[in-house]
Amino acid sequence: MKDTKALTHRPVPLAIVGGGAAGLFAAAAAASRGLGCLVFERKARIGSKLLMTANGRCNFTKDITPERMLADIGEPVASFVGPAIWACPPAMIAGGFKARGLAIRRMPDGRLFPASGKAADVVHVFGDELRNSSIPLLTNCPVTGIQPVKNGFIVATRNFTVWAKNVLVATGGASFPKTGSVGDGQDFARRMGHRVEPLRAGLTGCETNDRAIRAMAGARFENGAAAALIVDDSEVFRWRGEVEIEQWGVSGAAIYNCTRYAVRNGLRTFDLLIETPEGTWTVRRPVIRPLKEAIVTMGGVSLDEVDPTTMESRLVPGLYFAGEVLDVDGPTGGYNLTIAFATANLAVRSCKT
Ligand SMILES: Cc1cc2nc3c(=O)[nH]c(=O)nc-3n(C[C@H](O)[C@H](O)[C@H](O)COP(=O)(O)OP(=O)(O)OC[C@H]3O[C@@H](n4cnc5c(N)ncnc54)[C@H](O)[C@@H]3O)c2cc1C
Predict the structure, then answer these.
(1) 177 CA distance to ligand 1 centroid (A)?
(2) What mean pLDDT is predicted for residues 291-295?
């Protein structure tokens, strides 16, 4: 690694790479633990993806028990994120936001949003927390490399390096790359010897050529359901929720959760049974939309090489991962932000000083 100008002469206890959901929550957790940290963010502002969540409304968690949340997330992700979610359950996440002045709206199914309906309010909570705790935030500052050294890590940017005792990689997945999550963290992990599971679209819509369905473009059914069907039309997965008909096919929470099931379980072909108050349709052999449009990235740093009780690398001591950079994903409905927050919290609680 090129020896550029060093910014620090003593190691920073924790360098957080990524100022998204996981990185910002980690910074807040570090402040409450009294652990010195520094946040690097590739984009000009923090939380670009957070601002997009739930159409700009940010469904930041779901008011359900950890058991129920883990059952909905399903295996193999649930076993890995279990210790993190038990240590930082939805009630604690909601309590943390409330204590920092965020008014919360609860939907009948338990999904929690800022009462204002503005994701920006969630990002402001983090911005305020960083400012109040004097946490240095380097924006427009993509990390270009992380090199383990004798006493910590050298974290490199284009113009300078930082010496850090611990590093948390919270660079996200690879969907909506304009938000800054472009797969850098997976590359850093690979370079440090980690296996990375192939990145693919998790929660996303399905294209169809079925003219009868496309003719309904613009229709939206809040109380719909979708099921994934395999050979002989046997149902392997079902989710109740919104269904939307698009020019190119179908979207909405019920569809997204079926595509997540299909991708995670390696279904090469499947059909979608769509139920709405206005009728039932079967979409034959739908095509899953691309990763760049997915709500969550499936794949990422292999879970076998990360300790689920600490989020520390099993290969490189002092290296931690949180959020979508890992091979973790959940259904729609506040699960993915909960995973990002809870894994970040566990990583910070586990850092040795
Ligand atoms: C359209 C949409 C709607 C969604 N709605 C919801 C919802 O309502 N509820 C929910 O629970 N989940 C939702 N999600 C999913 C959720 O937003 C993600 O799971 C979550 O943001 C992941 O957090 P993260 O911190 O791992 O990654 P991100 O939030 O993507 O943050 C990663 C950060 O790292 C930065 N970064 C990347 N590389 C570098 C580098 N080299 N150096 C420095 N910084 C770097 C990026 O710029 C980015 O800011 C939605 C996602 C999308 C796309």
Answers:
(1) 10
(2) 95
